Amino acid sequence: MKQYILSSFISGNGGGNKAGVVFDDRGLSEASMKAIARKNNYSETAFVDLVKCKPGYFSIRYFTPQEEVDICGHAALAAFYALREDGFTQSYPVYHLTKAGSLEVQAKGDIILIEMKYPERVEQIPKEDVLKITNLRPETIMPNPDGGIDVVSTGLRDIIVEVDSLRTLRELSIKRSEMVDYCCEKDFVGMHVVSRETIERDSDFCCRNFAPAVGIDEESATGTSNASMLYYMLQHKAGMEVEKLYKVEQGYFMQSPSNIFVSMKSDGRVFVGGRAIVERIEEI
Q1: Between 20 and 30 A from 238 (CA), which of 64, 86, 90, 220?
Q2: Residues carrying CATH 3.10.310.10, the chain
Q3: For the structural domain made of 2-116+273-283, what CATH number should be given?
């Protein structure tokens, strides 16, 4: 059984976020998938069901080292790069069959764009809750027009926090145990923090992502969270455009500079994508 190890959302300076992609031609049990994901110890491992797949339609499941999740942006990107490398995808669009639904996959040159679950604001929390789980000061947080903080889901429930500057983003730290307790209590995956001030001139946003409740203290590149972030920005910020492809910086403070591209279509669907590179291929 073949496994690809890839880095997704790479930038011109490398970076990216590693994921495993297993081409499952045996009909693995859920217990076997969990064991492989634990052994890999990447934030996510994708399992492509080659037994059930048919041309243009690919059934994929995603596992962290701890649990199954409905969808994962960087592992989905890795999966579709591996499928292209192996000759399974010759033209686009193709479709991604997940526990979050049937989702479209497009390609623009070497960038693969993957539809996320339809975005929705699932909750609003008070700004004070964010102050309790981070070192942020009240004046550095830019709340939504109601004065609160949105929790948005495109498959996973993320707290979306906009801060006032790149410096605030760089100096941000979380209170780990408090965040774990809070996210477990509220059933949130974690917190995605965004600055509209960026490092590179052609970027639109700079972000950091924290999800210690699912074993990821900080992640260098995330798909679902950036889809949720773009939805939030389009809902609340002037000058934002549908159909535009926005560039996001992430992982730049982790020595893993990653680029994620996000776009919302006129029908409200959000696509997340980028570039990936194969690190190695192995038999398992």
Answers
A1: 220
A2: 2-116+273-283, 120-267
A3: 3.10.310.10
pLDDT 10s per residue in the chain (284 long)? 999 999 999 998 889 999 999 999 999 999 999 999 999 999 899 999 999 888 899 999 999 988 898 888 899 999 999 999 999 998 999 999 999 899 999 998 889 999 999 999 999 999 999 999 999 999 999 999 999 999 999 988 999 999 999 999 999 999 999 999 999 999 999 999 999 999 999 999 999 999 999 888 999 999 999 999 999 999 999 899 999 999 999 999 999 999 999 999 999 999 999 999 999 999 99
User: Could you identify the residue written with the tokens 């903080």?
Assistant: 149
The radius of gyration of the chain's CA atoms, rounded to the nearest angstrom, is: 18
Nearest in space to 222 (alpha carbons), one of 103, 116, 102, 87: 116
Which residue matches tokens 């990447």? Answer: 42
Q: Is 122 helix (H, G, I), strand (E, B) or coil?
A: strand
Query: For residues 48 and 25, is the Cβ–Cβ distance under 8 A?
Result: no
- If phi > 0 it is left, if psi is from -120 to 50 it is alpha, else beta; for residue 199 that is alpha
- Token look-up 């923090």 returns 193
Return the H-helix or E-strand segment holding 180: helix 176-186
Any idea what the Cα angle at residue 75 is, between residues 72 and 77, rounded to 5°? 105
